[in-house]
Amino acid sequence: MGHKNCILLGAPVDSGKERHGCLMGPDAYRTAGLSDALAALGHQVRDLGNLTAEHVDPMPNSNPVLIDLEETIGWTRCLIKEAKAAMGSGFPIFLGGDHSLSLGSVAGVAAHAAEQNRPQYVLWLDAHSDYHTPETTTSGNLHGTPLGYVTGRAGFEGFPTLPAPVPEDQVCLIGIRSVDQAENAALQSSAMQVVDMRAIDEHGIAAPLAAFLARVKADNGMLHVSLDVDFLDPSVAPAVGTTVPGGATVREAHLVMEMLHDSGVVSSLDLVELNPFLDERGRTAKLMVDLAASLMGRKVFDRPTRSF
Question: Of 20, 93, 257, 307, which has the fewest Cβ atoms less than 10 A away?
């Protein structure tokens, strides 16, 4: 992966769940020095500021527990357009915002890939599979639906028609450790590759990732990486409203990022679910910036020493 034209898009999406605070995420990444870290690696950096959701009129829905449906649809419309446009001029980095922003970011980058006649692959680094639909969710939290949407599951009435659904066998989930019964049943019949924490404990994180990256490369694919704060163990990344113990260590996460950089196939990135209201002196924001820097070329021996 050579020097990139990095395009930062702030997506202060806070509609995908009940617990608020992710709207402060984009500015926390900026404060934690993301632009400087990328520029220090030789990349060009252009910050487009924070996006705004499109207005959507109230609409009926069959699931009364859904939270902020219209606002989430508005964000999806906006982000599909912005993601597709940004892919045409560089390497977009979406600064979240909760994970419902990926409804739009992934759909938008996949639309660009389709126009290039290249397959779109997705790496989902998360404690959760996010494979629900607005009809199957019992929590009403739409940040649990993006993989359901972008792979073309039914039940997304009112959302934009997908320009280019992502085939399930081109999706890999790593770090999964919290899946409810309905999602688990759906995953069993899905072609997505799921690498849960038990598999990582037994076999390590490098082997399944290397195999997936080899597939992407052999297929001349474009790879979108969606990094959720809760992929990490909450002991090192507390600033998330969906903590699940037993997550990735700092070492595992940096290894993943360095392998992604070495592969040369990554074409876009989400940094999602950072809730600065829950952080401890910015430590989670700084760690996420460090991980983004590793993905963009910083090596293990180049990491900064922290003094908290």
Answer: 307
